[in-house]
From TrEMBL:
Parts of the chain that traverse the membrane: 234-255, 267-288
UniProt xrefs under Gene3D superfamilies: Spore Coat Polysaccharide Biosynthesis Protein SpsA, Chain A
Superkingdom, natural source: Bacteria
GO molecular function, one term: glycosyltransferase activity
Glycosyltransferase 2-like domain location: 10-171
A single cellular component GO annotation: plasma membrane
Family matches, as InterPro entries: Glyco_trans_2-like (IPR001173), Glycosyltransferase_2 (IPR050256), Nucleotide-diphossugar_trans (IPR029044)
Subcellular location: Cell membrane
Main location: membrane
Name under which the protein is recorded: Glycosyltransferase
Annotated keywords: Cell membrane, Glycosyltransferase, Membrane, Transferase, Transmembrane, Transmembrane helix
Length: 316
């Protein structure tokens, strides 16, 4: 439906209730892109915003034919919005970034320079986290530690989704079929040769963060279980250890009973072991349940996202 030749650069921006940020974002992004001397497209994925994000994007589009807007049918979450953008991007180099200007568009120039040197992926590493409290930082640290130890892929530190990817990397990511889209993990899993630039993360331009602690916790757990089977396997080992201990205890009790007779006090030890084993079993069931649920989700094979409408410039 579009006959423009494929641009060199695609910038992908997932937007969820970012109405206030849209004018600020384009006010800064477009001059930067214009100064880059490459052909570009900007793809904004409206992730079911309940404010005027879509209207404002379409407003920008009337004056900027290189803006393409993907309007999802509801809120699918940032990871899937990003997947939608990646799937529709056509650029030789693709840069996902946030709509709140925490990712400075100016850094794209440095990334492009590295890309031209022949790197497939250019990470943008933030030199400090902005807008996060101590507990969030600790949580992030803990998450990375656990993730590194449990999964086969290593996540680069302080690198978010803001990065540049060559077309072949994006094509690989687009071929990954899983529904549970932990993009940081997926990006790391596909590999390729990477270089790095450092940027200073800004404050959110307007509005508030779209992630609360519960959403973050869910996100972290999702990431962990999609990239590691360890939580599933560890219970086998723990179960075996506890069963051996229990067996030993049984033998001791039998010998005691044979030589010293029945021992009435001691029912509490039975209670303790029953409760303990029951608890362990419930925990194990819960973990197995989580993986079974994931298999269920994959087997259903539902689409990752649904596009309500694709707003291409010039086409109605
Ligand atoms: N976002 C999205 N869908 C969501 C939540 C967030 O598309 O369900 C977008 C949001 O509009 C922003 C980016 O993801 O462009 C990052 O969100 P935010 O700035 O709230 O995250 P933080 O910087 O606090 O981690
Ligand atoms: Mg942000």
């Amino acid at each position: 439906m579009q006959d423009n030749p494929a641009p060199t650069l695609s910038v992908i921006i997932p937007c969820y209730n970012e109405g206030e940020n849209v004018p600020l974002l384009f006010g800064r992004l477009l001059p930067v892109l214009a100064g880059l001397d490459v052909s570009f497209e900007v793809i904004c994925v409206n992730d079911g915003s309940r404010d005027d994000t879509l209207d404002r994007l379409l407003e920008v589009q009337t004056g900027e034919p290189r803006l393409r807007v993907i309007d999802l049918s509801r809120n699918f979450g940032k990871e899937r919005a990003l997947s939608a953008g990646l799937l529709h991007s056509r650029g030789q180099a693709v840069v996902p970034m946030d709509a709140d200007l925490q990712h400075p568009p100016e850094a794209i120039a440095d990334m492009l320079a590295k890309w031209r040197e022949g790197w497939d992926v250019v990470f943008a590493r933030r030199d400090a986290r902005v807008g996060q409290g101590v507990s969030e930082r600790l949580f992030a640290k803990g998450f990375y530690w656990v993730f590194d130890h449990l999964s086969d892929v290593k996540l680069p530190r302080e690198v978010g989704d803001f990065r540049l990817m060559d077309r072949k990397v994006v094509d690989t990511v687009n071929r990954m079929p899983e529904r549970s889209r932990f993009m940081k993990g997926i990006f790391a899993w596909v590999g390729y040769r990477h270089a790095e630039i450092v940027y200073r993360q800004g404050e959110r331009a307007a509005g508030t963060t779209k992630f609360n602690s519960l959403k973050l916790l869910r996100f972290a757990f999702d990431g962990l279980t999609s990239f590691s089977n360890f939580p599933l396997r560890v219970w086998g080992g723990i179960g075996a250890a506890i069963s051996s201990l229990a067996f030993l205890y049984i033998v001791i009790r039998i010998i005691r009973t044979i030589f010293w007779g029945v021992d009435v006090p001691g029912y509490e030890s039975i209670l303790v072991s029953v409760l303990f084993l029951g608890g362990m079993q419930l925990l194990t069931l819960g973990i197995i349940g989580d993986y079974v649920g994931r298999v269920f989700d994959e087997v259903k094979g539902r689409p990752l996202f649904i596009i309500r409408k694709l707003y291409e410039p010039g086409g109605e």
